[in-house]
Write a structure and sequence with these properties.
Blueprint (H helix, E strand, L loop, with lengths): L1 E5 L8 E4 L14 E2 L3 H9 L4 E5 L12 H16 L11 H27 L6 H26 L7 H20 L3 H12 L10 H4 L7 H8 L1 H10 L6 H9 L20 H15 L11 H11 L6 H11 L7 E4 L3 E7 L9 E7 L4 E10 L12 E4 L2 H4 L8
Helix pairs in contact: 2-12, 3-4, 3-5, 4-5, 4-6, 5-6, 5-11, 5-13, 6-10, 9-10, 10-11, 11-12
């Protein structure tokens, strides 16, 4: 049985099933191992891991600890509570209308970030005016329909991750900032900060950056230096504001003080850095990288909520979930009826009741020849009265959601 325990409850003989954090947040070669000595327990604590999962079939049990299923049910209930409040529909154009412009903006942003990263690598100055123009275009697109650009942000190959991650975090932060009601000047500042938050990675060895195996402790320490490098680079770049610099310097700090590089805690961390930390982890975990496969957006949101007990600002995490939606546009979902479809529009009043374009039927294993839409907010009939039961893996069914948007 899989159970969740606090780090201070670890004992010799327990078997760690999952360290409950990303690969870059712990120094162990695998995500599962038997606890053999005090040094291992101390190392877990030193890396800021507060809670993890043990396998009681492979090691000692802990009476009273909640099971993994109980934890998941509790988190799901909390997320359902978060997304149920009615939302104001501010969409100016449909996803279908905006998607063509959004693709152009994404491609230009990718080219701009690639050029910036190359400039940093070779010691050249960052062209801030080019970044500003890309951010302006992103803002315009997001105010027309944020779902178009956000849905494209998840489309990235692992060999272009470094560049597209910066673009995607930029899109997420602009959308998040709009949701939080930031004024236009601040919105542009956080967009620029998000786009440039990882420029320091260009100072890190490319061998380490692209390594497919688990990083050694020494390599992990070198990788963690990128936040400091980002701060130094942006401080020396004309036209970069303090808000943008803080986002780059502090996006790996954690509210409980277990982050890096400075171990800042609570209000010591910039508000915008707390926000971009959430967007950064969300995009990283929903993307395929050289050392890990991507996770479904719904599962990542659950993890972010779980980790907000210690590492992330709980209020900002809840607002982020409301912003992106538990089922973002472009997500493949299975309905209670057995139909599978792509989310093409969030529900106008309830994020749990989006519009779904049906493309597959699990009952007979057939693809739908003429995809049609179901509005889950409608009370009955072929175009309503169904509900989402789970997310589906596009790779498993051989479906490319983006072609249905």
């Amino acid at each position: 049985m899989i159970k969740k325990v606090k780090t201070e409850q670890l004992k010799h003989g327990m078997y760690v099933h999952d360290f409950n954090c990303g690969w870059l947040n712990h120094p162990f070669l695998t995500n599962s191992m038997k606890i053999e000595d005090d040094q291992t327990i101390q190392k877990v604590m030193d890396y800021g891991i507060r809670e993890l999962y043990i396998d009681t079939d492979k090691g000692y049990d802990l009476g009273g600890a909640p099971t993994e299923d109980e934890v998941k049910q509790e988190i799901q209930a909390e997320i359902d509570r978060i997304v149920k409040p009615e939302r104001e529909n501010r969409i100016a154009v449909s996803v279908k209308e905006e998607i063509v412009k959004a693709k152009e903006i994404r491609n230009k942003a990718k080219e701009t970030v690639h050029n910036i990263m190359e400039d940093v690598r070779f010691g050249r100055q960052i062209k801030t005016e080019e970044v500003g123009q890309v951010v302006d275009n992103m803002i315009d697109s997001i105010f027309r329909n944020q779902d178009a650009l956000m849905s494209l942000g998840r489309l990235k190959e692992k060999d272009e991750y470094t560049y597209m991650h910066s673009v995607s975090v930029g899109v997420l932060m602009i959308s998040f900032g709009k949701h939080l009601g930031l004024d236009m000047q601040i919105l542009k500042e956080v967009g620029v900060g998000a786009m440039l938050h990882d420029v320091g990675k260009m100072i890190v060895s490319q061998v380490i950056l692209n390594k497919e195996e688990k990083l050694t402790e020494k390599e992990l320490a070198m990788m963690r230096k990128h936040a400091e490098y980002s701060r130094t680079i942006l401080e020396q770049t004309q036209g970069i504001t303090e808000n943008a610099i803080n986002m780059a310097a502090q996006h790996h700090e954690r509210v409980d003080g277990t982050g890096y590089p400075l171990g800042l805690k609570g209000e010591e961390i910039s508000y915008y850095a707390k926000a971009v930390a959430i967007a950064d982890v969300y995009d990283a975990m929903t993307s395929k990288r050289c050392y890990q496969d991507k996770s479904l957006p719904t599962e990542v949101l659950k993890k972010l909520y779980e980790w907000s007990s210690y590492h992330y600002d709980r209020t900002l995490v809840e607002q982020f979930i409301r912003c992106v939606g538990i089922y973002p546009v472009g997500t493949l979902v299975q309905l209670e009826s057995g139909l599978v479809g792509v989310i093409v529009q969030n529900g106008e009043k309830n994020l749990l009741q989006p519009i779904v374009r049906i493309v597959y039927n699990t009952r007979d294993g057939s693809y739908v020849r003429l995809p049609y839409e179901i509005d889950l907010a409608q009370p009955s009939g072929k175009k309503g009265e169904d509900r989402i039961v789970s997310c589906e893996s596009p790779e498993r069914l051989g479906i490319k959601p983006e072609i249905y948007l």
